[in-house]
Write a structure and sequence with these properties.
The protein is α/β, with parallel strands linked by helices. 29% of the residues lie in helices and 10% in strands.
């Protein structure tokens, strides 16, 4: 088994805090940006406090999924260029990590966690099915980014049969309800630049569905992309490509094509490695192979979740808060890599996958280990 994408906590539904910005709270992300290099440099160790960590539930964690043989890198990658973090990415002012930073001014881990994690821009998840409030909550994030001239990253995560009934089960009751929820989501996107990470795991994990159910889901996803881009022509919508340790590129591309990801009317490309640990070089090679197999306009590209992939994926395939991981490249929309539109922090570092804390909760000890 290998890690794949997100495990949005089922408990969030009960607490009413699963969504990124429910009832005035932030998502499971961070705030605007910083001007450091995309590669985060090590910081000196800080003495570990004896206090234990507690946090309130938050949108997501990570999930175990099936792996397929890792594709061998096709052509030599272009040399990475070190570019400054884009000032265009938006850091949402509410998140679990910021809650912890504000509540723990004297914790010896605070400075490292704040500077290395809380100060980075990260995605905002909308993981609860709450049709009456979704438009206003999306609008709050989109308008917050627009007011600062920065680009927010939003994650709709309410597809029916989410996570195939696993840790992140939930979502809309059926595809008709989901389509209506997406209409309301799109109505909040405004007219500024936004990036939409459309339904992590919804395509890569779709083998659990029957052929008919899969076709229906893919039709809804294609519709979702069209609706969002019609509502806001500056919205950039990316579709689920899993990650480099999961489905083979040709198989994933075939599903993506059925879901509308090859059409500029629905899609700007693909995303990979959400809530996972696979190295950036592996993801670049994999995403390029998927895009080559996908076809479509040359404008299509990929965004990669680099939030926790600084040491790559564990050799044993462990997906749940594995030890020895570290932060990856800082979020930027300027990667210096052909076809790679951005490195994003979709999963907020320090949000537990369910082993170092309850799924989706912020765990300071885990965040500190990642950050140092």
């Amino acid at each position: 088994m290998v890690a794949a994408a997100s495990v949005v906590v089922a408990v969030g539904t009960a607490t009413g805090m699963i969504s990124a910005v429910g009832e005035g709270r932030g998502s499971d992300e961070a705030r605007p940006e910083v001007s450091s290099s995309p590669r985060l440099e090590p910081l000196p160790a800080v003495p570990s406090p004896s206090a234990s960590a507690t946090a309130s539930p938050s949108p997501e964690a990570s999930a175990k999924k099936k792996a397929s043989p890792k594709p061998s890198p096709s052509k030599a990658e272009k040399k990475r260029q070190t570019t400054a973090v884009s000032t265009r990415l938006y850091r949402h002012p509410e998140s679990r990590v910021l809650d912890w930073v504000r509540a723990n001014p004297d914790d010896p881990r605070r400075a490292v966690i704040e500077s290395r994690i809380a100060d980075q821009p990260a995605a905002v998840w909308f993981a609860d099915y709450a049709p009456d409030s979704i438009t206003s909550r999306v609008r709050a994030v989109a308008s917050g980014g627009a007011a600062q001239g920065r680009t927010p990253v939003l994650v709709p995560y309410a597809i029916p049969d989410r996570d195939c009934g696993g840790h992140s089960q939930g979502g809309a009751p059926d595809l008709g309800a989901y389509d209506a929820w997406i209409d309301r989501f799109a109505a909040g996107l405004g007219n500024g630049e936004v990036i939409v990470i459309l339904e992590p795991d919804s395509i890569a994990q779709s083998e659990c569905l029957s052929a008919g159910q899969r076709a229906d889901r893919f039709a809804s996803l294609a519709r979702a992309g069209r609706v969002m881009k019609e509502a806001n022509p500056r919205a950039r919508v990316y579709f689920d490509a899993g990650h480099s340790g999961w489905n083979a590129p040709a198989k994933q591309a075939g599903w993506l094509r059925q879901a509308g990801a090859a059409s500029a009317a629905s899609s700007d490309g693909i995303f990979s490695n959400v809530s996972n640990f696979h190295g950036t070089a592996d993801e670049i090679a994999y995403d390029r192979a998927v895009l080559d197999a996908l076809g479509g306009p040359s404008s299509l590209g990929a965004v990669i979740d680099t939030s926790r992939n600084g040491n790559g994926a564990p050799a044993d395939g462990e997906w749940c808060d594995p030890a020895g991981r570290k932060l990856g490249r800082a979020p930027t929309l300027s990667t210096g890599e052909a076809g790679i539109h951005g490195y994003l922090w979709v999963k907020l570092p320090g949000e537990s996958d369910g082993c170092k804390g309850a799924p989706g909760t912020f765990t300071p000890s885990y965040a500190y280990d990642l950050a140092r």
